[in-house]
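ok, trying the design again with the full structure, not the truncated one.
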């Protein structure tokens, strides 16, 4: 089937169903707005397996996602959606860009999660925006922004509990939402994996996510594979 889109980590293909696409996970790794690039064998396979298990878990908890069905090692079927150009970031502790922007100590725990919006634009470096920006740029209505924040906080609560079962501390994560082509319903889209979540080992504080690539810590795929094994065990 025809490829409709290729991003930094995935390819999207049409299927025989006009409302369903095939999402293929790539082995490419990027960081710092794609200034740093690499390829890791089995990265797509690992992220696909992790995303599938987590989306199934979220669906079981009543959260609506774009997941339709499993296909193979690197592909899943998903609902065709129009991605909202508002990325939602939820932070439970300080690290990454927040530390660079504010100078707060890495690992500082927040009394309540911090929710940020960013404009999904590689050209402009995914800048931080707020509800007013989203409204005036035509990215999302005020009501939609409120819904995105509310849903992101629910996802956060579910993921914190789930990852604790995995022996992992959910430091922060980025998620995307899209409007389904079939009825315009806003659902969780894209992926949830060590590419999009910062996960630290609960006992040792060892980073188990894409920061191992960003910071040249080594053992990138070994950490992803361990996350998958823990997610599998917690999903039984």
């Amino acid at each position: 089937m025809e490829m409709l889109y290729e991003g930094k980590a995935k390819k999207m293909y049409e299927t025989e169903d006009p409302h369903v696409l095939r999402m293929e996970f790539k082995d490419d790794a990027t960081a710092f707005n794609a200034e740093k690039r690499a390829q890791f064998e089995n990265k797509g396979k690992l992220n696909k397996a992790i995303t599938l298990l987590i989306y199934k878990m979220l669906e079981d908890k009543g959260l609506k996602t774009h997941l339709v069905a499993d296909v193979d090692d690197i592909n899943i079927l998903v609902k065709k959606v129009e991605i909202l150009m508002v990325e939602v970031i939820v932070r439970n502790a300080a690290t990454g860009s927040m530390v660079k922007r504010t100078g707060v100590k890495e690992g500082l725990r927040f009394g309540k999660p911090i929710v940020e919006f960013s404009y999904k634009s590689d050209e402009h470096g995914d800048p931080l925006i707020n509800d007013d920006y989203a409204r005036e740029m035509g990215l999302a209505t005020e009501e939609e922004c409120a819904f995105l924040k509310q849903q992101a906080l629910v996802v956060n609560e579910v993921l914190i509990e789930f990852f604790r079962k995995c022996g992992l501390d959910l430091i922060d994560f980025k998620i995307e939402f899209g409007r389904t082509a079939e009825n315009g319903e806003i659902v969780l889209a894209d992926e949830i994996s060590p590419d999009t979540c910062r996960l630290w080992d609960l006992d040792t504080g060892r980073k188990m996510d894409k920061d191992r690539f960003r910071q040249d810590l080594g053992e990138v795929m070994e950490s992803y594979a361990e996350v998958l094994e823990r997610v599998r065990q917690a999903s039984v």
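Keeping the full-length input from now on. The first helix runs from residue 43 to 60.
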